[in-house]
Amino acid sequence: MTENEPGQDPESVGDQRLTSIDERLRAIQQAEQVRTASTHKKPEKGYSQGNRVLTELIAGLAGGSLLGWCFDTWLGTKPWLLLAMLFLGIGVAFRNIIRISQERPE
Fold it and tell me: CA 101 to CA 49: how far, in whole Å?
C-alpha cells in the first residue's frame, strides 16, 4: 500500500517514516563515532615528556631570574644574585631534564 490509498491509516505511514529516519540517524551516528574515535587519542608519552622538558626550561630560567631579582632588590647586591640564581635555575632545569630523559616512554 502506498500512503495515498484510501484504506490506509495515516498514523502508521508517519510511524514507518519516523522509524526509518531513526534507523538511518543511528547508523550515521555510529559511523561518525567510529570515524572520530581514532582522531581523539590521548597524546603519546613522548609528546608529554617533550612538554615537561619545555616547562622545566622555562620554569628554571624564569624562577631563577625572578628570585635573583627579588633578592638583589631586597639586599641591594645588583646584579650578582640575579646572575647566581639564574645559573642555579638553569642547573636545576638541566638536572630535571636529565631525570625526565631517563624515563622510558611506553
Answer: 8
